[in-house]
Design goal:
By secondary structure, the chain is an all-alpha fold. The chain has 13 helices and 2 strands. Helices cover 72% and strands 2% of the residues. The protein has a two-stranded antiparallel sheet.
Amino acid sequence: MKKTVNHKAWFMVLPVLLLVAFSAVIPLMTVVNYSVQDTFGNNEFFWVGLEWFEEVLHSQRLHEALGRQALFTAIILLIGIPLGIFIALNMPKHKGLWSSVCLVLVALPLLIPWNVVGTIWQVFGRIDIGLLGYTLASLGIDYNYTQNSLDAWITIIVMDVWHWTSLVVLLCYAGLQSIPDAYYQAAKIDQASRWSVFRYIELPKMKGVLIIAILLRFMDSFMIYTEPFVVTGGGPGNATTFLSIDLVKMAIGQFDLGPAAAFSLIYFLCILLVSWAFYTIMIHSDKEAN
């Protein structure tokens, strides 16, 4: 018997496709157009081919910004993922009032807008009125995130970990809640150690959500802009000028639209490539689990 296919569902999806085309595809095509042309004003464009891509790829500025960005993302993942797993493992496992209170407290940083987070930490770290800066200065610690590159890095890393580790915690906690009690009962009968329970029961069951957590944290940290821009403005010097900040400076500050468009496409392709790799790993792990 031939199966009939109902295509009426596409009419329900059509508004979403039009919205995506208007908000994403059309601006992307505009960026592609600027990346292969040059303009001297009056809306007159001249074809330059891949000249802007070659200039950006051979630019030391891009290499330095990419190096800072990769280092920042690596540090964030190395700190945020294990910390999120540790907090999730120590949260109440059984549903109740205490469990709900813990979930609300953990989720609070995620509710704060990015620009507000940057403003909070900008004030928090000031040595004259900020609680953190004033306390460290009182203890004799020379801390100044506006003049010292290491202090600026530490401030931004701690800020990002504080803001986004909650996401990892919630995902890992959801993965832990999906583990049947029978697994823990069997481990208790076998007198398995706490490390063995984590290694052979909890970690494999959290594998799927951990891949999602790593992917989301990678994307957040690799595209970070608002928080470090508000706190340091990319300084001191270029110490915290990550890819997004450098791109904005190139496009808006210097008004180099052609190189900025090529820069943004390279930036986009880097994120797309890593996201595709994570997606492939996730699909492969799901097939193995089944």
